[in-house]
């Protein structure tokens, strides 16, 4: 699925199942909540925190997909074309960071 197809799928789902978009501020709060859920899993799985029983079986991919869904919803309702924005971001990172990471001894 392309980013364009994902944006269309989220829009269709929201209009058909979700009734309407939540406000941008509500979606920002939901996005923050979803990112927090990803952070909780990563801090326990890859960091120093120990798992709670309730977190042991949580699917990291599913939680990341929740972040993506809300981010796409925000893009849709604010008129952002994620395909174009992502391409521009990759160009920016490539030109800005082409030597920076290669010359970083901490990455070797």
Automatic annotation (TrEMBL):
Residues 89-102 have a biased composition (Basic and acidic residues). Pfam families: MazG (PF03819). It comes from the Bacteria. This is Pyrophosphatase. CDD domains: NTP-PPase_BsYpjD. Residues 89-108 are annotated as: Disordered. It comes from Rufibacter immobilis. Residues 23-100 form the NTP pyrophosphohydrolase MazG-like domain.
